[in-house]
From TrEMBL:
Residues 18-173 form the Flavin reductase like domain. This is Flavin reductase like domain protein. Pfam families: Flavin_Reduct. Coiled coil: none annotated. GO terms for molecular function: FMN binding; oxidoreductase activity, acting on the CH-NH group of donors, NAD or NADP as acceptor. Gene3D superfamilies: Electron Transport, Fmn-binding Protein, Chain A (2.30.110.10). It comes from Pseudoruegeria aquimaris.
Length: 202
């Protein structure tokens, strides 16, 4: 099968995000200039550079009570900071529950019953007990093609790792099995890993 996106695919559901999988989930926490906290998951998320470490996530829809993007993007543009919380498998339901299109004043931490902690380097909440969390300062927001597509790029200025996830000096993701997004309404978890040597490895 071949199709041009501009012509449509003719399938019951859009296959695009089922092709580009698995995708890590950035559980983005933010705080608005009014002090209200927000927590929402984004599956268009990834690390994009080592030095300095940088990450990105994309918001792909608008809300009636925001001038553009979602509450996460609005808060981040107001304050210039955000935190990426890594989602472990055991938190899949809580993560899903924070994805609702709630009104601006709703604190998803409180609504869903998620304990929050305070970031160290930035004025922002984080998910207490997350396997890892990345405190970020906004680098820029890029308007992507399409009416409601925005990419936020952040520089990581603080890194949290839960102690039980460190094994022999390495961050062991099998201890918490990170949740990943597939296509449609499907998800998966990383339960095993294997190592490959590169051609230039000694």
């Amino acid at each position: 099968m071949f199709y041009r996106p501009q012509d449509g695919h003719g399938l019951p559901h859009n296959p695009f995000n089922a092709i580009v999988t698995p995708r890590p989930i950035g559980w983005i926490s933010s705080r608005g200039s009014d002090g209200r906290d927000n927590l929402a998951p984004y599956s268009f998320f990834n690390a994009i550079a080592y030095t300095p470490p940088q990450v990105m996530f994309s918001s792909t829809s608008d809300k009636p009570d925001r001038p553009r993007g979602k509450d996460s993007l609005g808060n981040i543009e107001e304050t210039g900071v955000f935190c990426v919380n890594i989602v472990e498998f055991s938190a899949f339901q809580a993560m899903s529950d924070t994805s609702g299109a709630y009104e601006r004043e709703v604190d998803e931490f409180a609504r869903v019953g998620i304990e929050k902690a305070q970031c160290r380097e930035i004025d922002c909440p984080m998910v207490a007990g997350a396997p890892a969390a990345l405190e970020c300062r906004l680098v820029e927001v890029v308007k992507l093609r399409g009416p409601s597509n925005y990419m936020a790029i952040g520089e990581v200025v603080g890194v949290h790792m839960r102690d039980d996830c460190l094994k022999d000096g390495m961050f062991d993701i099998t201890t918490f099995q990170p949740l990943a997004r597939l296509g449609y309404r499907d998800y998966t978890r990383v339960a095993e890993v294997f190592t490959l040597k590169r051609p230039d490895d000694a």
